[in-house]
């Protein structure tokens, strides 16, 4: 809104009053908005010139609004994606070649059933089945003494042959493609529930206990497990629970869920991805067993 300060005044009192309001408006507007204008320049300006600062504020407000919209976008929110989700969406399939490349180190692997990856430690010759990049990256970095550590999604590539030539696709691009799929309009079933949400989110939110895996045959009595966090914590499976000997009290503690076990040993992170089952010189990530159990329950 334009403020008209110049008027035809007839008396000295009116001129004095106008000068007073000009000085007052100068103090309130120019100084508060940190404009580099002298009072003399201010008095010579036309009122419309004062709108520039307001327009600039509107532009800054629009930029902030766009940034907020970008934060609401799953592609910028750090939505958790793993190999199984890429596998279920069709971006990865069984038998695909997966390669880790970093600082001259090349590690070749294959995508297995349900999107898992089998990794063999060259130092210990132990084999582990993993479905998350974070523990896989950590194992590679430990086994090959990696010093320069890039972001894990940038270090892995899907390698395939297209028209008689080898094509490498960074896993980061597949992750972004998967997230873009989540932004598409969702279909709804007859009950009005979003099918995309039902397909993608339900398995992740499904409550699974150690007893569930035990009853389904994924875990057996006396199976040895190890929690790999800030240090290694060893335990066993006993009657569908985690049996852990507390080093402080020297008594056995029993836990029905991985979360309560993680809390007891005061660790952080994804407990499913940090716990491994040791069988026949192999280590299987508990996350893989959980995912297999969820697939079986669908």
Overview of this protein structure:
Residues 48-74 are annotated as: Disordered. Residues 56-74 have a biased composition (Basic and acidic residues). Residues 157-184 form a coiled coil. Keywords: Coiled coil. There is one protein chain. By secondary structure, the chain is an alpha+beta fold. It folds into 3 domains: 12-72; 78-205, no CATH class; 212-286, no CATH class. The protein is built from 12 helices and 12 strands. It has helices spanning 12-31, 39-44, 51-72, 83-88, 133-143, 152-155, 171-182, 195-205, 210-215, 258-264, 271-274, 286-297, and strands spanning 97-102, 105-110, 117-120, 127-130, 156-162, 165-170, 224-228, 232-238, 241-245, 252-255, 275-279, 282-285. The strands form 2 sheets. An 8-stranded mixed sheet has the order 3-4-12-11-7-8-9-10, with helices on both faces. It has a 4-stranded antiparallel sheet with strand order 2-1-5-6. A hairpin with a 6-residue loop joins β9 (241-245) and β10. The radius of gyration is 31 Å and the shape is elongated. Residues 1-9, 46-51 and 186-202 have low confidence and may be disordered.
Number of strands: 12
Q: Name the poorly predicted regions.
A: 1-9, 46-51, 186-202
Question: What is the subunit arrangement here?
Answer: single chain
Strand content: 15-25%
Helix-strand string: HHHHEEEEHHEEHHHEEEEHHEEH
Taking the sheet with the most strands, its summary is: 8 strands, mixed
How far is it from the N-terminal to the C-terminal residue, by CA? 62 Å
Strand order of the largest sheet: 3-4-12-11-7-8-9-10
Instruction: Report the structural category.
Output: alpha+beta
* Rg, alpha carbons: 31 Å
Q: In the residues, how many domains can be counted?
A: 3
Report the average pLDDT across residues. 76
Portion in helices: 40-55%
> Helix count?
12
Tell me, briefly, the overall form.
elongated
């Amino acid at each position: 809104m334009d403020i008209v300060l110049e008027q035809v005044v007839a008396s000295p009192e009116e001129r004095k009053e106008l000068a007073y309001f000009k000085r007052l408006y100068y103090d309130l507007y120019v100084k508060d908005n940190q404009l580099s204008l002298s009072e003399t320049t201010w008095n010579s300006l036309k009122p419309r010139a004062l709108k520039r600062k307001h327009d600039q504020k509107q532009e800054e407000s629009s930029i902030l609004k766009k940034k907020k919209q970008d934060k609401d976008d799953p592609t910028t929110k750090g939505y958790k994606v793993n190999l199984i989700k890429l596998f279920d969406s069709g971006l990865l399939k069984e038998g695909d070649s997966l390669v880790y490349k970093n600082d001259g180190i090349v590690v070749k692997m294959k995508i297995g059933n349900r999107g898992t990856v089998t990794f063999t430690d060259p130092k210990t010759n132990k084999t582990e089945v993993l479905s998350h990049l974070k523990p896989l990256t950590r194992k590679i970095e430990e086994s090959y003494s990696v010093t320069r550590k890039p972001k894990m999604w940038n270090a892995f590539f899907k390698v395939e042959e297209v028209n008689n030539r080898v094509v490498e696709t960074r896993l980061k691009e597949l992750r972004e493609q998967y997230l873009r799929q989540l932004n598409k309009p969702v279909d709804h079933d007859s009950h009005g529930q979003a099918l995309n949400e039902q397909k993608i989110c339900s398995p992740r939110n499904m409550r699974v206990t150690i007893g569930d895996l035990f009853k389904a045959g994924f875990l057996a009595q006396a199976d040895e497990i190890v929690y790999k966090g800030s240090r290694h914590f060893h335990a066993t499976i006993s009657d569908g629970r985690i049996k852990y000997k507390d080093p402080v009290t020297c008594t056995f503690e029993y836990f029905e869920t991985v979360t309560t076990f993680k809390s007891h040993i005061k660790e952080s992170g994804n407990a499913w991805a940090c716990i491994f089952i040791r069988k026949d010189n192999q280590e299987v990530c508990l996350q893989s067993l959980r995912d297999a159990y969820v697939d079986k329950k669908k």
